[in-house]
């Protein structure tokens, strides 16, 4: 499946499962995200502090912007066991450039 199709499937997640798609969630794909990588899903988080996080439309509807971080299966497991904040901290300590879809897997140590 192409990455845009996967993102579209993720957008339909709530309709299919009845669960809200929100920050601090993990989404595991049924297949690898794209060829040439072992990325297996997304960690869903809020944008960085200096980025737009939400807005209210003219008609009063609220829109929340989320960041999809591609992740390896072991990173999804790590986030499930230790939490997404612990994953982010461990990635920072390991020098992982999480935004790079062609990054190589790196062993992570849970923060103390």
Order of the strands making up the biggest sheet: 1-2-5
3D shape: globular
Parts with pLDDT < 50 across at least 5 consecutive residues:
none
Helix and strand content put the structural class at alpha+beta
Helical percentage: 25-40%
Mean of all residue-level pLDDT scores: 85
What percentage of amino acids are in beta strands?
A: 15-25%
The SSE order reads HHEEEEEHH
Q: How can the largest sheet be summarized?
A: 3 strands, antiparallel
**Radius of gyration, CA atoms, in whole angstroms:** 15 Å
Number of helices: 4
**What is the β-strand count?**
5
Q: What is the end-to-end distance?
A: 38 Å
Describe this structure in words.
The longest helix has 11 residues, at 84-94. A three-stranded antiparallel β-sheet has the order 1-2-5, covered by helices on one side. A two-stranded antiparallel sheet has the order 3-4. 31% of the residues lie in helices and 21% in strands. The protein is built from four helices and five strands. Strand 3 (54-56) and strand 4 (62-64) form a beta hairpin. The chain has 112 residues and is α+β, with helices and mostly antiparallel strands. Helix 3 packs across helix 4. It has helices spanning 3-11, 13-17, 73-82, 84-94; strands at 25-28, 39-45, 54-56, 62-64, 67-72.
Blueprint (SSEs and pairs):
Layout: H1 3-11, H2 13-17, E1 25-28, E2 39-45, E3 54-56, E4 62-64, E5 67-72, H3 73-82, H4 84-94
Helix pairs in contact: 3-4
What is the compact description of this entry?
With about 110 residues, the protein is α+β, with helices and mostly antiparallel strands. The longest helix is centred in the last third of the chain and has 11 residues.
